[in-house]
Amino acid sequence: MQVYKRLNRTLLWVLVIAFSILIAGGFLIFKNEAPRPSKMVDESGTTIVTKKQLLSGQAVYEKYGLTDYGSYLGNGTYFGPDYTAQSLHVYIQGMQNYYAQKQYKTNFKDLSVEKQSGIKGRVKHEIRKNRYNSKTDQLVLTTAQVAGVNHLTKHYRHEFRNNPHEAGLPENMIHNNTDDFMQNGDKIDQLTYFFFWGAWLSSTNRPHQTYSYTNNWPYDLDAGNIMTSEAMVWTALSVAVLVAGVGVVIYFYKKYHFDMQFNESYADIPEIRTDEPISNSQRKTAKFFLIVMMMFLVQILLGELMSHYYVEDTFFGLPLQYIWPFNLAKTWHLQLVIFWIATAWLATGIYITPRVLGREPKRQGILVDILFWALIIVVGGSMLGEWGSTLGFINGKWWIFGHYGWEYAEMGKFWQILFIIGMFLWIFIMLRGFVPAIKIKKNLHRSRLLQLLIIGSIAIPAFYLASLFILPNSHVTFADYWRWWIVHLWVEGIFESFAVILIGYLMVDMKLTTIKSTIRALYFQLILLLGTGVVGMGHHYFWEGDHSIWLALGACFSALEVIPLCLLVWEAYTHYRVYKDSHKGFPYKGTFMFLVSTGLWNALGAGALGFLINAPAINYFEHGTQWTSAHAHASMAGVYGFFSVAIMLFAIRHLTETNFWTTKVEKWIKWACITMNVGLAGMVFVTLMPLGYLQLKDALENGYWHARQISFYRQPLENGLTIARSVPDIIFTAGVVILLVIFFRAMFHLKKASKEINPVDYDIK
């Protein structure tokens, strides 16, 4: 127990230091965020744009879910343009045309190379100068900049009104309603002002600095946006930190034997019984698993619809974009993956609760039913709200019941709060079994393992509270700071920690590993995961108007994140040993096949592909391209998706009658695992990675804005790769359908609920 105390103390200090750095960096972010002037005026003092119009444009961007179509400051979706980069390019074109007409009475494109170079130099010098006056809270625009704003306004009127060239979106999608957080006036013009503000802050030097508010992102030579020296320096240093970190971690890992030690005779363990009685609340979790698989299938079908929009604007000639436009499909695609993964874990936690206590807490089944229907209401209600907001049926209170406007936080505020309440109800359900079990002092090691599991569970709803800090009129830098607490810290940090703890618990529950070695291994993994991951999320703060200190912190710590993820390859190998060496009657082969897959994709998807795109020197050009998409799919599906399937298979094996698990069913699970791995590998390495390479090459040659145009995907090679993606997509879908059929059939072979369940084995070694 002294060893546990030292490890516990170390973990607490790591968390205190990591979160202190993160929060201190947050204060620097808010202190140094780009100003949102009360007015943008011309040189004579005439008002061009007011702050109210600027914030109204932000509300339009959020209400119509454009973050799930294009991106802003590189954050969002990768199909549509990055509106910051595109606006910067078009705005500069307007300025260049202004000077061409003023000096030579002709269009800029008709000038000689020498004359064009002169104008480019003048425009570049002009936009770099920061004319914001903090005393008056006004931004002064030159006559040429005003011309650039007018040119940009004309551009977006053409894009969004009557003849949108935005593939996968309906015509006239943006209505002229004056809804919450909006002002009277033309909504497309106000949206343009929001885009222009992003172009301004990304190309204007910070006060007393030689780089912009976004550290000179996006790459655009006409704007003078080139990678800063700090980005290159910290990329090199991050590699050195990684090498040193690998050496240190391997030293401690080997010296103190921080790995799970298998029971010596695990290959010859007695026949594992799965015919034990189940309680009422355990039986009720089966319907959660069926809903999970249904959401999983719908989610990937929406992904295939989005892939189709890359090829043509409609769906095989059907104008489906008027019912499910790309931005709505992407919204549901993201929300469903969070819902079904979270639901799988919630249901598994509910199943485990009577198992750890050895009896059913009173009225537990009623609470489980309440949670189930609350889940149905939140999923269905939020999706309908997002559909209504995006298509313009929900106008007033759109931010409460409709689309909230931020990627991975699309649910309206009402649904976010209900979701949080539901997760805390889940914690209450688990505490009713875990607290009495922890208090039993017969096996202190087991109590410590349960403590880790329940603390990891509590962290899931606790960190989602960050979503409540974001409002529709929040500064984008402030909003994205907290949004990444949800995307990276919640999904990639807390989820990852809960996953490794749950894996450890399952290994002990199945009597495969010793409990002492498992707890030590879990502490070591948590120290590494959270010690690197909390600050490592700073690589998301490079280019969104944050303090440049994140180039150092984000680069180094995100490089270190690779180490614990790659260590999980060894864990995957040990899982494979169990699967391979276990005797014929071992009932968890399906679970272990997906656990092996989880470990491999942790190293490949989260580790290798994450390291590939997180270094500042690469991320500067790659940010928001298909390499990011490859990392996201490999991590979310390969890690959290496969892990969720593994724990559901473990639970459903105990919930169903033993005669259901025939050799044929086991074979179909094996084929589901194979097809899902092959499909995901094909999607990532055959299509997304080559597309990302071509996109990165295009950004280097023509500027980032050019690589994000829809025209990029309509080129022959790029179009062919996009079409080819349908093959691995179909293979992956086949695996999901197999699992859905298995879980559906399992519903007809559930054991009857019993008032008595097997007592807890407290003599775990």
UniProtKB/TrEMBL annotation:
GO cellular component, as recorded: membrane
A single GO molecular function term of this UniProt record: heme binding
Domain Nitric oxide reductase subunit B cytochrome c-like: 37-219
InterPro entries with a match to the protein in the record: Cyt_c_oxase-like_su1_sf, Cyt_C_Oxase_1, NorB_cytochrome_c-like
Keyword Transmembrane helix (UniProt): yes
Gene Ontology biological-process annotations: aerobic respiration
Family annotation (Pfam families): COX1, NorB_cytochrome_c-like
Keywords tagged on the record: Membrane, Transmembrane, Transmembrane helix
Parts of the chain that traverse the membrane: 12-30, 231-253, 288-311, 331-353, 365-384, 414-437, 449-470, 482-508, 520-543, 549-570, 591-613, 633-656, 668-693, 730-748
Protein name as catalogued: Nitric-oxide reductase large subunit
